[in-house]
Amino acid sequence: MSTSTASQNAFVDFKEVKSRIGILQVLERYGLLSNLKRAADRLSGPCPLHKGTNPTQFRVSVSRNCFNCFGTCGRGGNVIDFVSLREGISFRDAALLLQDWFMPDKAANRFAGTAPRQTTEASPRPSSQPLQPPPAVADDPDEDTGENPPLSFALKALKSDHPYLSARGLTEATIASYGIGYCAKGCLRGHVAIPIRNRDGVLTGYIGRWPGDPPQGQGKYKLPKGFRKSREVFNIDRAVHADSSDPLLVVEGVFDCLHLVQLGFSATVAILGSSLSPRQEILIREAARTKRPVYLLFDADEAGRKGASEAAMLLCSSSIVRIIDIGAYQPQPELLERSQVEALLTQHGATTP
């Protein structure tokens, strides 16, 4: 039996491979651990895939068993993805190779009567680590994975022609479609009310934005009592129904999101801040389940870059994630022109709608 035939006929449980083999085992097998600096749960160093030199561009999350390059190649994924990229072989063959290396109870004698399989790397050294599942993520009682209950009412008589809305670049069609308007009474009195809907399109709350600079001692945004924005991803109900070939863009703010939607990027969502919550992570994973790549276009400031890096580490185990630094053009996505967004996405291999 040829090596290729044996490989084609062999069974491989991808889920089991990913659950039983840790990223540290794979990195040690390739002799790469000495090139990476560890801080708690994470490792960083030059990217071994495109042979980069930036000491922070390649990131590894041990607990989530994934990696991501924030440099030239922009690659990311799980242990199978890493071996596939490192060896230049298919995802399936990479999983079979991992079984051969680390799962002797699963590795069939697929190459009986043939020469041992040679990889593109020069004899990776055996791992000194025992075969163990990757460490589980510790339970955090403060993790917000619940849902906001449906709202039992909707704000009426919102003023859709308030000058603040046009000043932020919103068209009449967008304002009407999303039901945005100035609120003259109630808990959001004096604010522009922005409806928030869950992934099923059900109204769960409003976010109030003071039109312009707020009075001293008052924040720009106001939330109704009991509403938790960390449980929602703005525009997720529409993004999941966008064409699956459209890139999934993730931004921080509502107005960033609406601006990109108006530019034609309908699969854009906002996490209502720079930090991705556990609930938002779940929602974005589900929106990207069709293998749609996720592009993070956060603000070009320290908080935005930090938030994008952390979000990428959370999402990379199940999605292809790219961080797009918009700083060469604008400090916020809301200010980008369509040609600039297209240029940024093209640089990262995306097809624009």
TrEMBL record:
GO terms for biological process: DNA replication, synthesis of primer. InterPro entries: DNA_primase_Znf_CHC2, DnaG_primase, TOPRIM_DnaG_bac, TOPRIM_dom, Znf_CHC2. SMART domains: TOPRIM, ZnF_CHCC. GO terms for molecular function: DNA binding; DNA-directed RNA polymerase activity; zinc ion binding. Transmembrane segments: none annotated. One of its GO terms (cellular component) is cytoplasm. Keywords: DNA replication, DNA-directed RNA polymerase, Metal-binding, Nucleotidyltransferase, Primosome, Transcription, Transferase, Zinc, Zinc-finger. Residues 113-151 are annotated as: Disordered. It comes from the Bacteria. Residues 246-331 form the Toprim domain. This is DNA primase. It comes from Prosthecobacter fusiformis.
